[in-house]
Write a structure and sequence with these properties.
Number of helices: 14
Helix content: 55-70%
Radius of gyration: 22 Å
Length: 307
């Protein structure tokens, strides 16, 4: 069973009763679910995942005011319910289980107590942070404070910011995959060619997530998450092959063609969404076209590679 399903079952079987019996007068002010850091929050965990940063439990999110009122008592009750940690804790991880203030949860990912309030904030936020802030599941939130921020982070990115991010990634696809990869092969620089190909794959994945209006998670989960997208999910397999397939000789020719095929698929979707028009298979010109169609003058004036 996935960790996300286990957490929901644990809440339904034991956590819900604890909240009702001990905090019945305020239980409708407590948001409950599982989200944040960790493969289980994405539903990507397996047996290997359980060796570290993986404990039984769920998240309880409170407003600042409610945390001051009953947060300590709720934390004590939660620890009594879940017991001591049984999983090794890595140096970089911070357990998100248990009682947390809503403002602290989102501050970890956005740098503020809630959703970004300016296009500059949206532009500066990395995709992985937004992915972790909006993953998992929320099982109850009668108050709605936690879910309101979550909804904004999921679908509230300004369109001009999305276009700016797309322009930067599409031009990277052109430069790294269509231009530098074949040139590095021609120079006999095999290592540089693989670096160029890696940059192309990363930019292509980010482009696909932006075209889906989704946030791409941390790199080790990117391909897996990409396979679940409604648009261009079938590109995950050729992108993975670019990283894992053999190199040299005929294999290089196959990869060169795959790069062009991937660019063509992306270009078709860019046109379908009205982000560019015109002919030409080289993506650089289309990246500049995406930039020109940004309505906000300050965003449009940024360097095309800036994000």
């Amino acid at each position: 069973m996935r960790g996300l399903d286990e957490a929901r079952l644990f809440y339904e079987q034991q956590g819900r009763a604890m909240l009702h019996e001990r905090f019945g007068d305020v239980e409708d002010r407590i948001a409950v679910g599982l989200a944040g850091h960790g493969s289980q929050c994405f539903g990507f965990d397996d047996a290997v995942s359980r060796d570290h940063d993986f404990d039984r439990g769920f998240c309880l999110w409170l407003t600042d005011e409610d945390d001051a009122r009953f947060g300590v008592a709720l934390s004590r009750a939660y620890r009594e319910l879940c017991g001591r940690s049984t999983s090794a804790q890595s140096m970089m991880a911070e357990s998100g289980l248990g009682v947390r203030r809503i403002s602290d949860f989102y501050r970890r990912y956005t740098g503020s107590a809630g959703a970004p309030e300016s296009w500059q904030q949206w532009l500066s936020l990395p995709s992985w942070a937004l992915a972790e802030a909006t993953n998992g599941e929320v099982w109850r939130d009668e108050l709605g404070a936690f879910s309101a921020v979550r909804k904004t982070l999921q679908s509230g990115m300004p369109e001009d910011v999305r276009r700016k991010k797309l322009a930067a990634r599409v031009i990277t696809m052109a430069q790294a995959g269509q231009y530098n990869y074949p040139r590095c092969l021609s120079h006999g620089e095999a290592g540089a060619a693989m670096l160029a190909l890696t940059e192309f794959v990363r930019a292509a994945m980010e482009t696909v997530f932006l075209l889906n209006r989704r946030h791409m998670p941390y790199y080790k989960w990117s391909l897996r998450a990409m396979r679940t997208l409604p648009l261009l999910a079938d590109m995950a397999e050729p992108l993975e092959f670019l990283l894992t397939g053999e190199n040299g000789g005929e294999a290089d020719g196959l990869k060169l063609q795959l790069v062009e095929d991937i660019c063509a698929s992306v270009l078709r979707e860019l046109k379908e969404q009205g982000l560019t028009s015109g002919s030409g298979a080289y993506l650089e010109a289309h990246a500049f076209e995406i930039q020109r169609r940004i309505e906000n003058g300050a965003i449009r004036a940024l360097h095309i590679m800036e994000e």
